[in-house]
Write a structure and sequence with these properties.
three-stranded antiparallel β-sheet; alpha+beta; 16 helices; binds magnesium ion; nine-stranded mixed β-sheet; 20% strand; single chain; binds zinc ion
Length: 476
Amino acid sequence: MNYEAVIGLEVHAQLLTRTKIFCGCSTEFGAPPNTHTCPVCLGMPGVLPVLNRRVVDYAIRMALATNCTIAPESRFARKNSFYPDLPKGYQISQYELPIAEHGHVFTEVNGKTNRIGITRIHMEEDAGKLIHDPYRPVSTVDFNRTGVPLIEIVSEPDIRSPEEAGAYLRQLRAIVRYLEICDGNMEEGSFRCDANVSVRPAGTESFGTRTELKNMNSFKHVENALSYEIRRQKAVIADGGEVVQETLLWDPAKGVTVSMRWKEEAHDYRYFPDPDLLPLVIDEGWVEKIRRTLPELPDVKKGRFIAEYGLPSYDAVVLTGSRGLADYFEECVKHFPEPKTVSNWVMGSLLATLKAQNKTIEQSPVSPERVAELLRLIGSGLISGKIAKTVFDEMVSSGKPPETIVREKGLVQVTDTDAIVNVVKQVLTEHPKEVSDYKAGKSKLFGFFVGQVMKATRGKANPKMVNEILKKMIDG
Ligand code: ADP
Ligand code: MG
Ligand code: ZN
């Protein structure tokens, strides 16, 4: 029987507010333990939480960007559990009345567009962090993270493969970054994901029993963990067994999922409305004010890049992956209005360089103006596309303008017919054996002669002219 996967993701995004969600403590990352705490976020008796308005602003931004309906009235609830990272014994979250519901985003995988439903978005506070001492039987707790604002984005079980899950996650991360509400850093835990997955016979409607995967702090882990878990569930069923609903931890070192059953026992959270917080009322005016501040979002930008610049969809997806990259591309096109040529260079040499140097587009060692200058040199025939790659590397390491590099290194393309004829003559004289083999029918040797001419000119001969002249001289 052919089985298909059904996947739904719960994504937590830490919001970039200056202060915590219910008190004035700083949200800054990496401060000495327990220095960003106060009676409110430590859960002392008699204190009262006060909602940070900016957290609501950010949640509304995300809700609008993901086509959700915003609740005119929502509520905070207490989610009870006893764990040393939760000083109050409960986490303030939203439950039966979240701030937003019924949204969707579009993702693209291998040229196919998928609509992924968003069940709900709610606001909540983060918990503290336990630190387990590797040398002593002691654990300590840092409450700096307690009360840092989060939004949780819950998807419908609309995802059908690990690749689609990865694309959805990347899309959500691009959106929070475009909105500037979260830094999207998975490694540091400011953008985290739990994945729910089940399998069912392909073409059927009802869902199979799901498992929930935790502890995945990179896109790769999410995709690998899901692939493993889908294979495992299929094997269980093929063996005549049944999948057990449970929470699993992904072990990236071993490449397997491990059960964490204790989590199930603690699963009754006994939610109830938090009596310390009033219902949250959001009027149309508030929503409209925020709607006017939204940037052009990845989807719209992608559509515009296709329509306005005539780019293939693949290029448009890559280039709109971040606002910075999209801006960089548009700045290049302003100075060199051949979008596909620009796109090839930005997606090729530039991104490869940034990756190798572990830099963001904002830290690019080459400016858009300089890229345009380089492309003009190719366009005018002064240098070949191949030499341009060398020039680009030199621009990266020396910071010099392309024209200077071309002059200093003598990289100007040879387009002088006589000069090329001379080199071709010389190559043919030096390789009499190859010439006679070629004339005897070994036509593949043509490429060898081209290669020899390019080598003799150190790559500077105009390749089109070399081909033409060689053809004339050897065939004619
Ligand atoms: P909980 O909070 O207990 O984990 P939810 O009902 O909020 O439960 O669901 C969490 C996620 O699980 C959602 O993203 C949903 O799409 C997904 N989900 C629910 N049922 C299934 C299933 N049978 N297979 C895969 N994913 C599922
Ligand atoms: Mg869950
Ligand atoms: Zn505090």
